[in-house]
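Is this the right way to post structure tokens for a design question? Let me know if I should format differently. Anyway, here goes:
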């Protein structure tokens, strides 16, 4: 149903939310943003890994329309990290921190290191004495001086905009009216089409319908 519903959304039509039991497109209705955020945490850390025997960090990607709010990328990033990777060696960088085993994303092209905007990996080592942080981009080891850490962000949850050009096994997208200004058809379409195996929308049918009917573009 991912492809079918992606086409329906792109055409301004409501997605098919009912059908065969083993479907790949789900909608979990929840009006309260705090409860929706907790539902997303539970899906990522307990329900999906338990049912499908998958890695909660590598196989699931949360895509939010924006950074702020209970179901924004910033809050979900923090909560997912504290649930999935609460311990381990840590380095603080400005207002942020990185831990060994954190999921991170490269946010600018670095031709010297041969890593590019949108590449994802896991932090494998932090050497505080040498000021070196090592990231494994799924087979490719890249070392960063601490002065280069502005090229990395936590990536347990990212914005839909940042996900363009990438694919993930399972995608979870909050669709809430608190993101009213960014409830846009092309953002929803982009988020849905990032998924290879499953899409889970968490939010309200009202917000979903607003997004489908809003054909503005984002930049």
């Amino acid at each position: 149903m991912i492809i079918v519903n992606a086409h329906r959304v792109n055409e301004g039509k409501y997605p098919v939310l009912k059908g065969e039991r083993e479907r790949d497109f789900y909608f979990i209705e929840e009006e309260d943003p705090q409860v929706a955020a907790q539902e997303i945490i539970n899906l990522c850390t307990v329900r999906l890994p338990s049912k499908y025997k998958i890695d909660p960090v590598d196989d699931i990607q949360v895509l939010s329309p924006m950074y702020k709010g209970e179901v924004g990328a910033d809050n979900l990033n923090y909560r997912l990290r504290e649930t999935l990777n609460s311990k381990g060696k840590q380095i603080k960088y400005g207002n942020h921190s990185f831990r060994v085993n954190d999921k991170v994303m490269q946010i600018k092209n670095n031709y010297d290191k041969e890593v590019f905007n949108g590449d994802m990996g896991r932090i494998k080592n932090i050497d505080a004495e040498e000021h070196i942080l090592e990231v494994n981009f799924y087979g490719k080891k890249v070392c960063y001086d601490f002065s280069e850490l502005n090229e990395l962000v936590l990536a347990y949850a990212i914005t839909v905009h940042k996900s363009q050009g990438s694919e993930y096994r399972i995608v979870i997208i909050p669709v809430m009216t608190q993101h009213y200004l960014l409830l846009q058809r092309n953002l929803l379409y982009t988020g849905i089409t990032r998924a290879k195996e499953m899409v889970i929308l968490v939010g309200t049918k009202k917000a979903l319908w607003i997004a489908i009917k809003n054909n503005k573009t984002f930049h």
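Format looks fine. Someone answered above. Worth noting: DSSP finds five helices and twelve strands in the chain. The mean pLDDT is 93.
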